[in-house]
Fold this protein.
Amino acid sequence: MSKLFLFFVIFATVLTCHASNDRSFYTLNRHNGLSNNCIWQLIQLDDGRIASITPNSVDLFDGQEVTTIPIDTSKYVQIPLYNGATHVYADQNHLLWIKQWQRLYCIDLKKMSQKTVDDWNFDDFYIDGCGGVWYLKNNKLLCKNPDSQLSFGSEDGTLQDVIRVENQIFTFWNTGALTAFDLSGKRAFSLSAYGGDSVRMYKETSLVVKGLNNRLYQVRTGSGGSILSVFDINTHTWSKILSENFLMHTLTITSTGFIYITTSDGYIKINSQTLDEKRFKTLLLPDGTELSDGINTVCSDRQGGIWLGTYSHGLLYSSPLSGIFDTQPLDIEIEPILTKIYMTDIAPTYVENIACEHDDNSPAFQFSTMNYVRPHATFYRYKFSGGDNEWHVLSADSAGNFVSGNGVFYFPLVGLSSGKYTLEVQSSTNPENWQNAKIKSINFLIAHPWWQSWQAYLCYFLIFMAVLYLVLRIYRQRLERKSREEMLLLRIKNLVEQVNRYENSQALVLLNDNDAAEPEASEPEPSPQDKEFMAKATLLVEKHLSDSQYGVEQLAADLCMERTGLYKKLTAMIQQSPVAFIRSIRLHRAATLLESKELTITDIAERTGFCSASYFSKCFQKEFGCKPSEYDGKIIFQ
């Protein structure tokens, strides 16, 4: 019974919170990651994150975590004409500009650090809501994009705000006047929201916000309190919506046309169409406590939520979603925020192109959304060019645990080969509706290893060309050496032929001299006795071939002849002396051994009876016209 009662109490509480959604807020403070519970100003960045300005830092909330960028309050530039409270702008270059009573700070969101502004000599600074950055100097308002210059007179007063709508620039002055210019700098018209004593009462600060149907809403403050007015661009008319004797801090307008104004006494909600208003002096916090003071600033996000900044309680968030226990489908616009890249120190939100080394080929990415209250109802859709290049839908209920119950999408990639890849991610609260979902694209390159780079291929080519050059050079040298050897052998052959012809001609001349009267006749055939004698003499020399001491005396004795008789016999038969006969047999035997290529020249010299290799070489060259080392067996012996 008690459990049933408790269920009805919880259910009634949920219904009460839902019915009074404007008064029920979630809390985000130092316990959740904020650096300070004192919030001076709020703004939603282009990527969807909420930036809160504290006295000494900028806190960026991505729906899951808070990242803090410290502010060095000593690093500022002077803007002497700004005498208002904290005002924050975000430009197209991802720079966050913070104005505080004659001071201007700049935060680089890409580098997640404070930026030093050099060569500053301007009196004030504005961003027109369309990306144009304007600088005020000596009653001239300058802008680089679009390139424009507006000139004023001292009678116009002090410039406090600049808003651009299409091709018109609207300037707002401390006198309550609005002056319109075209982009060329020509004045179009000037109208005042009020006159008389109101000029003195509301001249301190101005805050202008663009609303629906080309309307500009302005909160002005001064000694007389605050006033909320609207200027209709279509009809060129001012209208007063609200005036109070207390201070109105900040102003925001939702996409559905509701105006939220924070004051020193709670906050006010106004329907911009009907001008019906509700005042909330207390806020209901999730722990059941009520907050009745300290509300400083307000910001509406693109998801329809309302963010309140307080002086001591951090951020308060009112969601347009139904209660936590409501399971009805949601259909609000959310966008993926890249919160982490597990491979780089760059602020991940603004990363669009990544270059990785070949060994860093397993990148991983983490995404979240500003679906702060119902994160479990977050769906993601991704397409990866390195896969099947088709869209895949994931949620916290999908297999693989790629999406956590907190709505965080973790996408790992493992072992990618070298090449270019693209990851596209969308987020939605309705898995059937992706038409208007923004796409977050990340292009990354896995570099080729050094041995596959163009420098390496160039080295390979140069090495190949060097090796080819050496091979061709060696081949050419071998061809040249072979050609020289062939030429040498040919010259030796010709020389041998010339010597043989000379010896033959000399022999003929000798014969002719000895017997000039006798007719020329052919050389007589040797007799059998002469043949037997030559064979025996040759055999004796070959038998003693290795004996270097075997000479003419031994040969004559073995043939049973006198030395002079042997000389006469051999010169008559072969026109050679006994010494030449013995040496010739030894050299021809040496030539035969050289052809086998089994023995060295020294060994052959010893085996053929020569006392030294040098003497052998000298005799061999004289006999055959070439050295033993050059002999290849092709010489024709005469």
